[in-house]
Amino acid sequence: MTEKRRFPRYSCKVKSKFNFYEGTPDEIDFEITVPSKGKGVICDISKGGALLITSERVGVGVPALVNFKIKRNKYAVHASIVRTGLLKHNPTEVAQRMAKFISFGDSYMAVEFKEPIELSPDDL
Description:
Strand 4 (about 65-70) and strand 5 (about 75-85) form a beta hairpin. The protein has one helix at about 95-100; strands spanning about 10-20, 35-45, 50-55, 65-70, 75-85, 105-115. The longest helix is centred in the last third of the chain and has 6 residues, at about 95-100. The protein is mostly beta strands. It is globular. The chain has one domain (about 10-115): Beta Barrel (Thrombin, subunit H), CATH 2.40.10.220. It has 1 helix and 6 strands, in the order E-E-E-E-E-H-E. A 6-stranded antiparallel barrel has the order 1-2-3-6-5-4.
């Protein structure tokens, strides 16, 4: 299988908080809609996105603002939710790898950052 990712991924364990919008992405009015709030743990990150473990149920395609801190650097990154799923009884490779993080939540959420962030393996 050919690697499609633009940036290398790094395993990590970083607490995060995020805002996300519920509903159909094309019908969300960002001027008046109040975002929902969630929290989770980033267990895989790159310059272009992250994989979070959470208990929130989120929809694919909705925008999110992901907040986290790595060492002394604080990030507030605009993102789009590109994939979600439950960890329990999930045969996919992603869910199998992330099952060890189930104490932080019962589902995963993959986000793609709108703009790449500055990140190096030394940061983690």
